[in-house]
Design goal:
This protein is an all-beta fold. It has a single domain, classed as Jelly Rolls (Sandwich), CATH 2.60.120. Helix content is 0%, strand content 51%. Strand 4 and strand 5 form a beta hairpin. The termini are close together.
């Protein structure tokens, strides 16, 4: 699925409960916070960067440029139901939910 974050947009933090995500960034610049409960890291992202969000990992993403941050997200297994994510405490104050881009 194709998603877009607007400039300065910060998403709510979540933890994956039952699936792994693969992200590929198409344009823009941002940062992704990931935590497995023992260690946390912030990864800069831009066009051409890919990363994974493993099962059990908390994550949050923000756009840090004046243009949208576009990404493709692939879920393994396919997105099942509403039991996939739980809210998590991230390092940034959220400004929005992730919006799928047409």
């Amino acid at each position: 699925m194709h998603y877009r974050l607007k400039p300065s947009q910060i998403l709510l933090a979540f933890r994956n409960l039952t699936l792994e995500e693969f992200w590929y960034f198409l344009s823009g610049y941002g940062e992704v916070w990931r935590s497995d409960g023992e260690k946390a890291e912030i990864t800069p992202v831009a066009s051409g960067v890919s990363l994974t969000i493993p099962i059990g990992t908390a994550f949050q993403i923000r756009c840090i440029c004046n243009e949208p941050l576009d990404l493709l997200r692939v879920y393994v297994p396919a997105w099942p139901a509403d039991t996939v994510l739980e809210p998590a405490q991230g390092p940034w104050t959220a400004t929005s939910h992730l919006i799928r881009h047409p």
